[in-house]
Design goal:
The complex is a heterodimer of chains A (about 450) and B (about 375).
Chain A (H helix, E strand, L loop, with lengths): L1 H42 L2 H4 L11 E8 L7 E7 L4 E8 L2 H12 L5 H17 L1 H45 L2 H43 E7 L4 H9 L3 H32 L5 H10 L5 H15 L5 H25 L3 H9 L4 H29 L3 H6 L6 H11 L4 H21 L1 H4 L9
Helix pairs in contact in A: 1-16, 5-6, 7-16, 8-11, 8-13, 8-15, 9-11, 11-13, 12-13, 13-16, 15-16
Chain B lengths: L3 E10 L3 E11 L4 E5 L6 H9 L6 E6 L2 E2 L10 E4 L11 H11 L4 H14 L15 H14 L4 E5 L7 H18 L2 E6 L2 H7 L2 E6 L2 E6 L1 H6 L4 H6 L6 E10 L2 E6 L2 E4 L2 H4 L9 E6 L4 E4 L7 E10 L3 E8 L2 E8 L9 E6 L5 E4 L12 H6 L1
Parallel strand pairs in B: 3-8, 3-9, 6-7, 7-8
Antiparallel strand pairs in B: 1-2, 1-4, 4-5, 9-10, 11-12, 11-14, 12-13, 14-20, 15-19, 16-17, 16-19, 17-18
Helix pairs in contact in B: 2-3, 2-4, 3-4
Classes of the chains: A alpha+beta (about 450), B alpha+beta (about 375).
């Protein structure tokens, strides 16, 4: 009895422990997977990106195959190896080498030197010349099979469409409650399916034969070569495509720093007042400071356009940072108030007695002690203004900030996920660097000042 | 060093609450003054007004004849030791002590000399390079003390500086503080709620209640010649025993009537009560002014012991009279037991009479020299 109890307790411990780690792992994955996705996609080529997550790591090289195009007048066919599909995927068919190089770069992030391509074409010609008879023989062998396969496929598709038609009829008959008709249609469908199965079987056999022949044919009709991939190509392209991105990056930094300066100086002083002085309506005021944050930024941005335009700050970093500060001041006030509350007022009083004015006491004693917390709340303001897009779209026109540029790429690139990812990572980088610089202080953000 | 004078000093919070009211006090040079009183009595408020940390509502503060009532703290030439030390955590011990001197724009070598001298005085010389968080509570208090001494102020203000220390350290620091006071000879105002601390350190004690001064006097004065019921009850451990008694005249002699006893007064004690026309008064007897007798003949009353608290050097005996606990300090021997019947009489020279309504002292103060003789 006792033994059983101990055992069950032990089991419960194991189960709860395991569950705990599963939950922790789940949370970690939820956080890590999107970051990993963004980062790897930003290093992948367009062709690779769509294979994620089967292709989990970005590759450093691309394997190409050069063949003659299906009809001689179309020139050459370049294919690239897809790791997820396990086959060579055709990239482009062209006579013009420049077109092939361009297309290859766009899709695979590898720039194939034109000289190399020319050499490879010569090689291909050589091989084909040498094995002319074999190729001739294999091709002639293959032709009937190809024709047969085509015929089979045609029939399969016909039957499929018929099956579809009968399915629709079946539904109608069922709804109408015509039992006889339903029976008849079901009979028909059965026979059609049988036929379809047979045809598919045959098509499979034929294509197996074709594959077998291809195994002999491909080595003598194609040239393989491997080209290294420029892993940062997406970033380069991103900055090339969006010609405004570097000034936008600088503007974004300006906006973020200005926001920090404004919100920290005003919010910090307000926080100090909330922490140190008692006055009528203090709690109400403190709450109303947060109230500003409850309005969506977009709705504030609309009237702000008019106000800023009148002030002459529209489409300028200062104007944008003013709008961001509105929200940030509330947050900074709360954070700094809790920081200042953690610093005993006696420290300031002591400074006043020992030769400081009130301001002097603040600068000599309170400020150095609050600095870690202030740095952390500066980070908060930085990140808040750094990644803000909606208001920036409204409040800028010719001088967008970086998030706006990334957003425009997302809208304009039409599915170039890897480019957007590159922009996203570029945007995250300064925020990450800023956070790493002041990481020591972040834990002190909520008044955890150790005195 | 300096003389401090407080004239009708008052502090009002809001519209009605008085933190301190009508404080009049003259502190002479090199004196060690202790403000004593229960929490909320206005002692810290008064101190903070002297320091300039609290705005004065009414009255004046004079330091060496100069009116400093509305001067900012830094121009007052005072230094202060806070209850929670208030040493700056982001500075080393050295910087903590040197900071006030730097604010005074003293030359560097001069600062260095003073810091070393002062830190030796309070025994923290070996910790000069450390930060306050690496020090114990007692050491931090020493740093605060050193900082206060280093500026050579006219007046030292100490706001319950020992109350955050543990009991043993507190007693030791008490002695050290007094020794330092002797060395520096600085005029000092010390705030505490601990009456034994006040008694052991003060030249004069200022006892306060509800923003007002109740009595000013040397430790002996406030102990033996307590001005009113509050002071008599606040000073001394265990506190004075109070008994409400009826005043009657029997056979031409003045008699105090208590449900448990009848006390005939001698001429000396009866004299001041001649003009007292109320029929009740409060009799105050200090626990050590009660004597346990062997037989009943001369005893004022007999009662059974409720509790005995042995203290080593003496024992405290508690009895219950009229629902009140009365405590008696008796010599360590003979040992008494609970429930034992004892016979008690009073030391007639140390009886205190208080007005039943105003709680003011009725019989005049005894000359301390006379008390010493007895």
């Amino acid at each position: 009895m006792n033994r059983n109890l101990i055992l069950s307790r032990k089991w419960r411990k194991y189960v709860s422990g395991t569950l705990f780690y599963i939950v922790v792992l789940g949370i970690a994955l939820i956080i890590l997977i999107p970051i990993y996705f963004l980062f790897t996609i930003s290093l992948m080529s367009d062709q690779e990106a769509y294979d994620w997550p089967i292709r989990f790591f970005p590759s450093f090289v691309n394997e190409f195959v050069l063949q003659e195009a299906s009809t001689p007048d179309k020139g050459y066919l370049l294919s690239v190896y897809s790791h997820s599909k396990g086959i060579y995927v055709p990239l482009c068919e062209s006579k013009d080498l420049d077109t092939i190089v361009k297309k290859a770069k766009l899709k695979t992030n590898s720039s194939i030197p034109k000289e190399l391509l020319k050499r490879k074409i010569d090689e291909l010609k050589d091989i084909m010349e040498k094995n002319k008879e074999d190729i001739e023989r294999l091709r002639s062998k293959m032709t009937p099979y190809l024709e047969k396969l085509e015929r089979l496929n045609g029939r399969i598709s016909r039957i499929l469409s018929e099956v579809n038609k009968y399915n629709k009829k079946l539904k109608l008959a069922e709804r109408a409650g015509m039992k006889d008709a339903v029976q008849a249609i079901l009979q028909k469908l059965k026979s059609l399916n049988e036929e379809l199965g047979e045809l598919k079987e045959e098509a499979k056999k034929v294509s197996e034969k074709i594959t077998l022949l291809n195994q002999d044919l491909i080595p003598i009709t194609s040239v393989k070569f491997t080209i290294s991939k420029n892993i940062f190509e997406n970033y380069i392209t991103f900055f090339k495509v969006t010609n405004d991105s570097i000034p936008a990056l600088i503007r974004s930094i300006q906006v973020a720093l200005l926001t920090i300066a404004i919100s920290l100086s005003i919010g910090g002083l307000a926080g100090y007042a909330f922490a140190r002085y008692y006055f009528r309506g203090k709690n109400l005021l403190k709450l109303s400071v947060l109230f500003v944050r409850m309005f969506p930024g977009v709705s504030i941005a609309m009237p702000m356009v008019i106000i800023l335009a009148k002030m002459g700050f529209y489409d300028k970093p200062l104007g944008l940072s003013l709008v961001y500060s509105v929200g940030q001041i509330g947050m900074t006030t709360w954070i700094t108030a809790s920081i200042f509350m953690g610093i005993p007022v006696e420290l300031e009083e002591a400074a006043q007695i020992f030769g400081c004015s009130k301001w002097g006491a603040f600068f000599h004693v309170t400020l150095p002690l609050a600095l870690p917390g202030l740095a952390a709340s500066a980070m908060y303001a930085f990140i808040g203004s750094w990644s803000e897009t909606a208001q920036a779209i409204i409040l800028t026109q010719f001088n967008p900030t970086f998030p706006v540029v990334v957003y425009q790429t997302l809208v304009g690139a039409k599915g170039l996920v890897n480019l957007v990812a590159a922009g996203g990572v570029t945007m995250a980088l300064p925020a990450i660097i800023f956070t790493l610089i002041i990481r020591r202080y972040i834990l002190q953000m909520w008044g955890g000042v150790t005195v | 060093m300096a003389e401090l004078e407080l004239v009708n000093l008052s502090k009002r919070y809001g519209k009605k609450v008085w933190g301190a009211r009508g404080i009049n006090l003259k502190v002479t040079d090199r004196e060690f003054i202790v403000f004593l009183g229960p929490s909320g009595c206005g002692k810290t408020t008064t101190l903070r007004m002297i320091a300039g940390l609290e705005e004065v509502t009414e009255g004046r503060i004079f330091l060496d004849g100069k009116d400093i009532t509305y001067l900012p703290p830094r121009f007052r030439d005072v230094s202060m030791v806070f209850q929670n030390y208030a040493v700056w955590p982001h500075m080393t011990v050295y910087d903590n002590i040197a900071f006030p001197l730097r604010m005074k724009k003293m030359p560097k070598n001069e600062i260095d000399r003073i810091v070393k001298e002062v830190s030796k005085l309070v025994n923290i010389y070996e910790y000069l390079g450390r930060y306050p968080r690496q020090l114990s509570g007692g050491q931090r208090q020493r740093v605060a003390l050193a900082r206060a001494i280093a500026v050579k102020p006219k007046i030292f203000l100490m706001d319950e500086p020992l109350s955050n220390l543990d009991a043993k350290l507190r007693v030791r620091m008490r002695t050290e503080l007094k020794a330092i006071h002797h060395k520096t000879e600085a005029t000092t105002i010390f705030v505490t709620h601990d009456q034994s601390e006040a008694m052991s350190m003060a030249d004069r004690i200022v006892i306060m209640r509800e923003g007002r001064i109740e009595q000013i006097g040397t430790p002996e004065e406030v102990y033996y010649n307590s001005d009113n019921v509050f002071v008599a009850g606040f000073i001394g451990t265990p506190p004075t025993n109070f008994m409400e008694v009826e005043v009657k005249t029997e056979n031409g002699r003045m008699v105090l009537l208590h449900p448990h006893f009848k006390l005939e007064l001698d001429d000396e004690n009866a004299e001041p009560l001649k003009h007292y026309n109320k029929d009740k008064l409060i009799l105050g007897v200090r626990p050590e002014s009660m004597v346990i007798l062997k037989n009943k003949d001369k005893a004022v009353f007999s009662e059974r012991i409720l509790v005995v608290e042995p203290q080593g050097s003496h024992q405290i005996i508690a009895i219950e009279m009229e629902g009140k606990i009365v405590k008696i300090v008796a010599p360590a021997f003979p040992r008494y037991k609970e429930n034992e019947l004892i016979h008690v009489s009073f030391d007639m020279k140390r009886l205190m009479f208080f007005d039943a309504e105003t709680e003011k002292r009725l019989n005049p103060f005894k000359d301390l020299m006379e008390i010493q003789k007895v």
